[in-house]
Automatic annotation (TrEMBL):
Residues 51-70 bind DNA. The lineage of its organism: Bacteria, Bacillati, Actinomycetota, Actinomycetes, Kitasatosporales. Residues 1-28, 213-234 are annotated as: Disordered. Residues 28-88 form the HTH tetR-type domain. The keyword DNA-binding applies. It comes from Streptomyces rochei. Keywords: DNA-binding. InterPro entries: Homeodomain-like_sf, HTH-type_TetR-like_transc_reg, HTH_TetR, KstR_C. This is TetR family transcriptional regulator. Pfam families: TetR_C_20 (PF17925), TetR_N (PF00440).
Length: 234
């Protein structure tokens, strides 16, 4: 049996969403079910396998309710990437990467994410395609992906509480490179070894900008709103 919040609910028009109030615990649980169902479908058949009606049935919510949470498949898959990133971030906080330099730690962090992508390549492909197709109506979801990615990189850096413009620029370049190497790997144009070399190379920007200075305990809890490009998956 499906859950119906509003029997007359209809899909909202993209680009016309108003700011939503905070979710209740029941709504958060429903959202989790939706995202988990999306990930399962994508793991089985990639981007094409994620159909809104099937997601609604699998997560046991009404189709109209699903559209109120996520106006399109692209919104849904970008939100799934953000959920995967949250899981990756939690894992990294429990078991942070080692490395003598900030560049080493960031590179190992991003390659750990690639390891997760290798285990579920169809999910990785679906999320990457959604990011490629995302237009301005998906900006809130893309921004969430970017913020989480920036937080992951800064946690690996152990960098300053208030990064400089140069440091944030380095993080953005790393994010862009990560995304580009992800696309190249998914399309068969780059091996994991090549990806590793490119990631290690770009991560040296962290040391060049001096972002790898130690910070006080608790710095890992911050999340930045300064990122620009979607880069990772859990």
């Amino acid at each position: 049996m499906t859950e119906v919040d509003n029997p007359e609910a209809v899909a909202p028009q993209p680009g016309h969403r108003s700011a939503a109030p905070p979710l209740t615990e029941r709504q958060r649980e429903r959202r989790r079910r939706i995202l988990h169902a999306t990930a399962r479908l994508a793991c089985r058949g990639g981007f094409e396998a994620v159909q809104m009606r099937e997601v609604a049935e699998s997560s046991q919510v009404a189709l109209g309710t699903l559209y109120r949470y996520f106006p399109s498949k692209v919104h849904l898959l970008v939100a799934t990437m953000q959920d995967q990133l949250e899981q990756l971030h939690a894992t990294l906080r429990r078991n942070p990467p080692g490395g003598e330099t900030a560049a080493d730690r960031v590179a190992r962090t991003l390659m750990r994410a690639f390891g997760a992508l290798q285990r579920e390549p169809r999910l990785a492909e679906a999320m990457a395609r959604a990011l490629t197709f995302a237009d301005r109506s998906v900006s809130p979801e893309v921004d969430q992906v970017s913020r989480r990615t920036t937080a992951i990189i800064l946690d690996a850096v152990g960098g300053p509480e208030n990064p400089t413009a140069a440091q944030l620029s380095a993080v953005r370049v790393i994010e862009h490179t990560w995304h580009s190497t992800l696309i190249a790997w998914l399309s068969g144009r780059a091996s994991i070894a090549q990806v590793g070399v490119d990631i290690e190379t770009v991560c040296r920007l962290i040391d060049v900008t001096g972002a790898g200075e130690p910070v006080a305990a608790g710095g890992g809890e911050r999340e930045r709103a300064h990122g620009s490009g979607p880069v990772a998956s859990g």
